[in-house]
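Hello forum,

I keep getting stuck at the same step: I have a sequence, I want structure tokens, and every attempt I make locally crashes halfway through. Rather than fight my setup again tonight, could one of you with a working pipeline run this one for me? It's a single chain of 325 residues.
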Amino acid sequence: MGVPQKITLQEAAGLINNGDYLSFSGFTIWRRPMALMYELVRQGKKDFHLFEVNGGTHTEVLAGAGAVKIWESCWVGHELYGKLGERVAAGHVDGSIIVEDYSHAQCTGRIIAGAWGLPFMPTSHTMGSDILNPKFDMLKNAGLRDGSNPKIPLKKYEIVKDPFYDMGELLLIPAVNPDWALMYVSQIGTEGTVRVFSQSYVDTETIKAADKVIVLAEEVVPEEYIRREPEKNIAPGFAIDYIVELPWGAHPTGSQFFYDVDAEFIRNFYTASKTQEAFDEWAQEWIFGVANHEEYLDKLGINRLQKLKANSVLGYSTAVKRGTR
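Reply #2:
Ran it on my machine without issues. Output:
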């Protein structure tokens, strides 16, 4: 068990190969590893297989760039800033993206099974729905459940009878073990102990389920400090492979106690994502028009970033205008 290697953002993206199986930290528009998504696109990476409990702005960046081949999840969008995942939807319609649909609870069960080292999770979630309609088994329809890829299960699900209490039928859903967990977190210790300042969602399970883990951290802090309150930590250092210290690495998604969601940025991105042409123009400006994360932050400007900066006690910005009831 060694100490995770500290690397640059460019080096992190360089470790990820075309066609790799990826999963992510966060939830919808919170704590997504956005800077790494941009860098993957800059480096021309493609054909990714994504699994996530729910998609978000990061998903749409990869899908718009033509970097997604398979997407397994239950939903994608930007919450109140854009209800739909336009680029994933477009890819599903034109056939460039294979979309395998599971319910939210089923996705959670699948990543938990992967984290626990189980081949499947027994559940009764979403039984009786069209998610289990054989004609919607999209990976099978594409001929990909043939055993040639060890990361793709031979079946989408199996229904069995309860052998212990005779309580009826159970649904078995396959575990997920991605090649990479790509995480954005609040703090990481110098030896890799991970802490987030908010809900952890399924971040712990995603880290445990993945073969390798890259963490983008807002701050790297002394290991001695982060271990003083172990109840606040979500993963140990031996579970982490690489660390990238990268302030504002989740922008435009939010990082509680560091900065708010950049609502204007995501609204503009959502508008641009409605057509491929508009997305390409957006990408030319915000991905290819800057050489790296530092130039991206310069383009955003100090005034914009300062407005998003969270109050250290309240955990959110007091400068951002919010709705009223």
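The mean pLDDT is 97. If your local run keeps crashing, start a new thread with the error log.
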